[in-house]
Structure formats: C-alpha cells, structure tokens
C-alpha cells in the first residue's frame, strides 16, 4: 500500500475513531508544578499523557542531555538534572540520530538517517525549530541555543499537518509514542507520551499524534523515539506504563526544571573597591558593577536592558547609569554614568536597579561619595569670562584686567620706549 493511500485510510479511520468515542474518553487534569499542567487521557484503545509547559514562567527551564550523560534511564536523567518533568528524546543506535545538545555542548557521535527535525531552547526559554538535515553534528543556527533534541518525521510544520510520511514506516501503525511540539508564539511546550502494546491500549499512529498535538495548540511538532523507549517521568516517578515492563537507558532526554522564586529580571549591586570620588561642580564618570541574578541576559543599548538610577538628594534623580557591553545569567555587568555634584563634602548616592518594565530589581543600595571642593581661582588670575549666554551657562561678571593683561601692557610700553630712544639717537 502506497504512503499516500495509507494516509487516506488511516485519516478516515482516525476521524471515525475520534467521532465515535468522545463520551467514553476520560480526561484528568492536574497542575503538579509551577508552570506545568498534566493531562491523563484514557479512552478505548488509547492511554496517553500530555504535558503543557509555560515557557513564559521564569521558574521553568528546559534542559537536555549533555554528551557525557548519554545512555542513562529517563529517571536517572531527571534525578541528575533536578528535572521535575523528563521525557526520552532522540532515536539512536551507537550514537544520536540527529542533532543533540545539552548545556551548550553538541554530541560529536551523531548520524542523520532522516532525523532532521530539530527543536532548540535557550537559557531564558528562547525556543525555535529548525531543519538540521545534512548537519547531525551541528552547527546550530542560533547563537542563544543551549539545548537541542531531534527526531523524525515532522508531524506539524508551520501549522500544517504533514501526513504523507516516507519514514519511518512504523508511524502508520499504532505504537507507544513520544512527541514534542511548540505553539506558534513559542510560549508553550507541548509534550506527548502515549502507552501501547497492551490489550487495552495498543498505542497511537502518527495521525493520532497530529490530532492530539494540534488540539493543544502545537504549531510545530516532531516525532521522537517511541516503542519501548517511551518514558514520561513526573516528580521522579515514571508516569506511564512501560511497554518493556522495565525502563530503558536511552541516549538523550529532555527535561523541565522548576526553580521556585526564579525571576526574569534581578540584579545585585556590588560594593565598589574604593570610595567613590568627585569634584564639586565638575562632571565625573562613575562606574558600578552589577551581577545579573535573573534569567534574562542583559545587553547594553538594548530596550530590554535594565538601567541604574542615581539619586544624590539634590535633584539628580533623573541621572541614569547604562550598561556597557552585556551580562548573561550569573555574570557581572559594568554600568557607567556622568554625575555633577553641586556641593562638596561627604555625600551618599542611592542606587536603584530598574527593569525594562519599571519594576525594582532587588534592594535600593546607598553608597558613600567623597566630593572635593572646587579649586578657587582669585579674581586677579582668573581668565577673562567667556560669553555663553546662548548655551544657558551663567558666568561671573568681569572684575577688571587680569594679571596677564597688565603684563602684556607693560611689555608693549617698554617696546614703545625703546623705539623712541632709537629715533632720538638718529
């Protein structure tokens, strides 16, 4: 039977199956962790799990297997990576079928064999899909990527269901299944694990995977290793019924780690090594070191970068220090500002680190500043005033010729006297 004819036959069968059994379906929803919803669905011949992960939640992180942690069970992966949710990922033999990356490190031992459907994530839950055909060992197309898993075939691509598959052929038959999808806005990760090879649940086909994934908003989705590899771990325990009756060690995994209290924007203003110093009436360049303790990376000159507001109690509340360069999670960034103190003495600067949305990031910090008095120049040696009224500058009124001017006049008088004496001698 040709693949196109199989698509038609199974598509009709799927439509009839779903139309005939809604009353018999049993859906059980839970919210086991922050940013995570879990569905257990049981209906005639079907026993599956769907996990919806909110990528907009800062307590959520997506993690994948590092190369040195290949070929461990999904339960062991969840424990080692402190992941509350874990799922098996790539197909494999001696190496990974398709691109695999964990913590920014690519698998060197990888082959293609059709596994060109790849899904990528970054440290701040950036998410994307890409076609890795011809490059099973990378490189990946985005600089921010730290986690990648791959599979075959694409189930949904750009919102369109792809059902005329040429490989693997078993996608047309009911089997235990694993799949992952992303919504169009990339804000939700959709995970699917379906049991199979049981009398009451033989598994699901590729068509059924497409239907379930689209039901929960998947705009792009990829089929991952299934069969005896299909394993879903929730809270450290296997949530599905394994078709092999024991858990397999698989080459790669994907996980969801929950970090209570994590936020997108947070920072720690570090105390300077020396007391800040400036001169009364003169603009000084101040530098401050701030550690990025939030999830989002900071980039200078970017609208998403935080700013450091300065308040000296004398109306400098609008003075802001801006980030130079960039600072990723856990890194220290340097902020600079130009500040002109009005009065000399021991002063205090209040610093507020402010997120792009105006929210306060951390606590307000007060730093001491030593302001030197301006050097006073006597009226006799002061240079003639510069008229700058058009610039809004105020200058002191003139108090007579300066010492330099008197010196010039005296020299001119002496020169005139010498000239007169020469003329008298002739």
Summarize the helices and strands and which ones pair or pack.
Layout: H1 3-20, E1 26-33, E2 36-43, E3 46-54, E4 60-64, E5 72-73, H2 74-80, E6 85-88, E7 96-97, E8 101-102, E9 105-106, E10 110-111, E11 117-122, E12 127-131, E13 145-151, E14 154-157, E15 160-161, E16 177-183, E17 188-194, H3 206-215, E18 218-224, E19 232-234, E20 237-238, E21 249-250, E22 253-258, E23 267-269, E24 276-279, E25 284-292, E26 298-299, E27 307-311, E28 319-324, E29 326-327, E30 332-339, E31 345-354, E32 365-372, H4 403-425
Parallel strand pairs: 7-10, 24-32
Antiparallel strand pairs: 1-2, 2-3, 3-17, 4-22, 5-21, 6-19, 6-22, 8-9, 11-12, 11-13, 14-15, 14-18, 16-17, 16-18, 19-20, 23-25, 25-30, 26-29, 27-28, 27-31, 28-30, 31-32
Largest sheet at a glance? 8 strands, antiparallel
- Averaged pLDDT: 87
**What is the oligomer described by this structure?**
single chain
* Rg, nearest Å: 35 Å
Envelope shape: elongated
Distance between the termini: 130 Å
Number of beta strands:
32
> Which regions are unreliable across 5 or more consecutive residues at pLDDT < 50?
1-23, 384-400
Class of secondary structure makeup: mainly beta
Helix count, per DSSP? 4
Taken as a percent bin, the fraction of beta residues is: 35-45%
Helix fraction, binned, reads 10-25%
Q: List the strand order in the largest sheet.
A: 1-2-3-17-16-18-14-15
Describe it for me?
The protein has 426 residues and is mainly beta. It is 14% helix and 37% strand. The protein has 4 helices and 32 strands. The strands form 8 sheets. Strands 1-2-3-17-16-18-14-15 form an 8-stranded antiparallel beta sheet, with helices on one face. An 8-stranded mixed beta sheet has the order 23-25-30-28-27-31-32-24, with no helix packed on it. Strands 4-22-6-19-20 form a 5-stranded antiparallel beta sheet, covered by helices on one side. Strand 1 (26-33) and strand 2 (36-43) form a beta hairpin. The protein is elongated and about 130 Å long. Mean pLDDT is 87; it is low at 1-23 and 384-400.
């Amino acid at each position: 039977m040709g693949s196109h004819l199989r698509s038609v036959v199974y598509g009709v069968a799927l439509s009839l199956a779903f139309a005939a059994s809604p009353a018999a379906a049993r859906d059980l929803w839970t919210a086991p962790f922050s940013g995570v919803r879990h569905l257990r669905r049981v209906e005639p011949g079907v026993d599956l799990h769907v996990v919806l992960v909110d990528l907009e939640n800062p307590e959520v992180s997506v993690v994948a297997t590092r190369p040195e942690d290949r070929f461990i069970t999904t339960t062991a992966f969840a424990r080692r990576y402190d992941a509350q949710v874990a799922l098996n990922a790539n197909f494999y033999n001696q190496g990974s079928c398709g691109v695999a990356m964990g913590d920014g490190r690519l698998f060197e031992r990888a082959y293609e064999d059709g596994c060109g459907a790849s899904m990528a994530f970054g440290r701040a839950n950036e998410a994307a899909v890409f076609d890795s055909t011809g490059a099973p060992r990378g490189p990946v197309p985005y600089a921010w990527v730290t986690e990648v898993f791959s599979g075959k075939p694409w189930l949904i691509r750009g919102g369109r269901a792809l059902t005329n598959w040429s490989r693997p052929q078993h996608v047309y038959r009911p089997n235990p299944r694993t799949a992952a999808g992303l919504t169009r806005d990339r804000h939700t990760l959709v995970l699917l694990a379906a049991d199979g090879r049981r009398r009451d649940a033989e598994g699901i086909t590729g068509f059924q995977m497409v239907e379930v994934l689209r039901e929960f908003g998947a705009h792009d989705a990829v089929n991952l290793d299934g069969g005896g590899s299909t394993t879903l771990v929730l809270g450290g325990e296997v949530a599905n019924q394994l078709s092999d009756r024991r858990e397999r060690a698989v080459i790669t995994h994907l996980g969801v780690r929950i970090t209570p209290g994590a936020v997108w924007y947070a920072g720690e203003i570090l105390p300077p090594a020396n007391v800040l110093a400036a001169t009364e009436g003169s603009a000084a360049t101040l530098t401050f070191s701030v550690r990025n303790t939030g999830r989002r990376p900071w980039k200078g000159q970017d609208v998403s970068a935080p700013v450091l507001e300065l308040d000296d109690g004398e109306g400098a509340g609008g003075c802001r220090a801006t980030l130079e360069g960039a600072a990723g999670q856990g890194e220290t960034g340097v902020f600079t500002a130009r500040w002109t103190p009005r009065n000399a003495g021991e002063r205090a600067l209040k610093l507020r680190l402010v997120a792009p949305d105006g929210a306060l990031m951390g606590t307000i910090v007060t730093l001491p500043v030593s302001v030197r008095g301006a050097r006073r120049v006597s009226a006799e040696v002061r240079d003639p005033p510069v008229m700058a009224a058009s610039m809004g500058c105020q200058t002191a009124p003139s108090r007579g010729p300066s010492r330099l001017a008197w010196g010039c006049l005296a020299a001119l008088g002496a020169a005139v006297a010498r000239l007169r004496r020469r003329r008298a001698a002739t």
